[in-house]
Amino acid sequence: MTEAELTELVKRKLYEIAPDIEGEEIVPDEPFADQFEIDSMDLLNFVIALHKATGLEIPEADHGRLVTMAGAVAYLQERTAASSERR
pTM (2 decimals)? Predict the structure, then answer.
């Protein structure tokens, strides 16, 4: 997936777990919890949604990399590239 596709995927999944923020600007490097009223359960649901959408295993140790838009997109780019190379 391209960076633009991954960005849209991350936005879509974020909006699914917090539909009231849809349409709001997302600052790429600011944690979602600081920008929006998103708690740890919302973030866990976001990680689960990304897993279901991509099929990628996302270890709990990596959850901290998914707390910003930039971090989530970079993480998914890295993981999808690694996944493609193994095939």
Answer: 0.91
Find the CATH number of the domain harbouring 39: 1.10.1200.10
Query: Considering its fold, how many domains does the chain have in total?
Result: 1
Residue 19 belongs to what H/E stretch?
Answer: none
Domain of residue 54, residue span: 3-21+28-86
The pLDDT score that the predictor gives to residue 1 is 86
Q: Phi/psi of residue 47, each to 5°?
A: -60, -45
Q: How many CB atoms are located within 10 Å of the residue 60 CB?
A: 8
- Are 70 and 3 contacting, i.e. CB atoms less than 8 angstroms apart? no
Q: Is 25 helix (H, G, I), strand (E, B) or coil?
A: coil
The parts of the chain modelled with pLDDT lower than 70 are: 84-87
The whole-angstrom separation of Cα 8 and Cα 30 is 17
